[in-house]
# Entry
Amino acid sequence: MLFGEAFSMPELSIVGLIGQSAETAMDAFTQMNRYVRLMIDSDEGGSTDWFELIQTEGEVWLELPSNIYVDHIELAESAFARMVSGYAREVGDVSFAKAIHFTHEDPGYRAEFDRIFKVPVVFGSDKNALLIDEAILSFEIPQPNRYVFGILSERADALLKSLESSKTIKGQVENLLIPVLHTGEASMELIAGKLGLSRQTLYRKLKAEGVNYEKLLDDLRHKMALHYLSGKKVSVNETAYLVGFSDPSAFSRAFKRWTGQSPRGAIAGST
# Structure
């Protein structure tokens, strides 16, 4: 909890920087949910959202629904302390919440809860949640930077894509292939061994995802060739080597099959 009080989300994660660059508190919360997988392992179970807004009987609760906050009470305490303290730093010594509920029992340092939150705290509740003023959601974040928001969102999207691809066999195979493409040794047997699988098992797993290994390898070489050539920092021959072709002419033929033009033509067309 003291860690949450001392360090704001922007100091800890790109997700916090995105939230800080949003226009309103509601927009910031929405972005937090969008990129929650960069902060919380969804395999812990429960909801994959960072928070849920629940309106009931004229009240608005901001609830942390993931089981990770039930199983690891320090994360719930830290998350709420970070929210409340961060808000207080922005607008003065004003509480972000009207009340706070925790699913765990009183851990024995009640004075710290009273000092940080300054609102009623309930332990042994059926939820980890803040009771908030609905008006807080439209609170405008001081000096939002939309340019920074766009740059950070683009980077976070790339991280999410990488995270998702690492959970598929295709993504794992691609991640293992990229470092060895230049060796020309990119056999299915090699990659299967790196995954601790037999060749046949890898074949079956890829097939279940609708993926053919040879086509995956060919597509990856195509993608990496375009990446190297678009950077204009390596020659055509060097690119051929980097994507696993010992013969530049064979690379040129493959590149023409991929794009309909020669590698040098592609470079000229991008200038």
